[in-house]
Automatic annotation (TrEMBL):
Family note: Belongs to the glycosyl hydrolase 130 family.
Lineage: superkingdom: Bacteria
GO MF annotation, one: hydrolase activity
Hydrolase keyword on record: yes
Source organism: Salegentibacter flavus
Protein name: Predicted glycosyl hydrolase, GH43/DUF377 family
Transmembrane segments: none
Alphabetical list of Pfam families matching this protein: Glyco_hydro_130
UniProt keyword terms in alphabetical order: Glycosyltransferase, Hydrolase, Transferase
Database matches in SUPFAM superfamilies: Arabinanase/levansucrase/invertase (SSF75005)
Length: 344
């Protein structure tokens, strides 16, 4: 059995206005001996921004800003910017996040060359109403969204005067191009994870998304398989390249008498064709067990969103009970060995 060490709480909320209700779900990237964390900071009233801190090594706090590094600026993110993920592709950092306007949740992008100054690039996710989406789904008899746990709500068009769009969140880029193409994961509201290929700065046009959804059955990355992820699966950390494939740390959700239980899960995907699953752990990598994971803003949550490697140790940063940030560590070589023992 794989040995996973819970390193404990890394970051808690403070009395500062922008993070006095919680800190959670951080993006993480290693630069030299430092780890940069960009985390979701929640203020009273459930308004989210992105806070920042720098760690010396994987665990020791070095710097923590007393104000957010990214804040809502546009109507589509007026209720908050949530759950960032971060990768570096060539010489540019890609920070994706979910924008929430109180009704719609859509994946967005900001880019940076220095991790200090960010340029918001807008919404990456498709902006289809439920009616428009239904037409695309029904146009191809091979697309069966009931299989993917998606409920088509034909009668709902707008709320409080705002168009209700199909939620598309957890946009997470692979940290390098594959065969010259950008790859990213995303999850339409349902139980399945999808993958797409396009230039994020100019290729994600309405026409791209229309053609994509007409053939969306070809974009399935993977579906729930085991008991701990049976309700649905979703994006976690950006994939980590190993000699054996892309290591994917994702979240799986299981419904229980006490509500949903969110666990960290692991899989290996083919380096040149990420839609080819090599292996998947048949049990959670780690799950809620301590009080600060079992009880909080949302109970029973371990939600992994950032990971770094120091020598042979993988450190996974995760939101615990939607209220604070914790870290778990394990041997990277042992994890890949355990995964390969469960080849598909």
């Amino acid at each position: 059995m794989l040995n996973v060490k819970k390193e404990g709480i890394i970051l808690e909320k403070t009395a500062l206005d922008f993070e006095n209700s919680g800190v959670l779900n951080p993006a993480a990237i290693r630069e030299g001996e430092f780890v940069h964390l960009f985390y979701r900071a929640v203020s009273e009233g459930n308004y989210s921004s992105i806070g920042y801190c720098k760690l010396n090594g994987p665990l020791q706090m070095e710097i923590r800003l007393d104000k957010p590094i990214l804040v809502p600026e546009f109507d589509y993110e007026c209720q908050g910017i949530e759950d960032p993920r971060l990768v570096k592709i060539e010489d540019l950092y890609y920070l994706t996040y979910t924008a929430f306007d109180g009704i719609n949740a859509l994946g967005c992008l900001a880019t940076s060359k220095d991790l200090i100054h960010f340029e918001k690039r807008g919404i990456l996710a498709p902006q289809f109403t439920h009616g428009e989406f239904i037409k695309l789904v029904k146009a191809n008899p091979l697309v069966d969204f009931k299989r993917y746990g998606y409920r088509i709500e034909e009668g709902i068009h707008q709320k409080d005067g705002v168009k209700m769009l199909v939620w598309d969140k957890n946009i997470i880029f692979f940290p390098r191009k594959i065969d010259g193409k950008y790859y990213f994961m995303h999850r339409i509201r349902g139980k399945v994870q999808f993958v797409a290929t396009a230039d994020p700065l100019q290729g994600l046009t309405p026409t791209f998304w229309q053609n994509y959804f007409l053939q969306v059955h070809e974009a399935v990355l993977f579906l729930p398989k085991y008991d701990h992820e049976l309700s649905y699966i979703g994006g976690g950390c950006p994939p980590i390249e190993t000699d054996f494939g892309w290591l994917l740390i994702y979240h799986g959700v299981k419904n229980s008498p006490k509500g949903n239980v969110y666990s960290a899960c692991a899989a290996l995907l083919d380096l040149e064709n990420p839609q080819k699953e090599i292996a998947r752990l048949p049990y959670p990598l780690f799950k809620p067990e301590y009080q600060w994971e079992l009880t909080g803003e949302v109970n029973n949550v371990c939600f992994p969103t950032g990971a770094v490697v120091f020598e042979d140790t993988l450190y996974i940063y995760y939101g615990a009970a939607d209220e604070l940030i914790a870290c778990a560590s394990m041997s990277l070589s042992e994890l890949t060995k355990e995964l390969l023992a469960h080849k598909k």
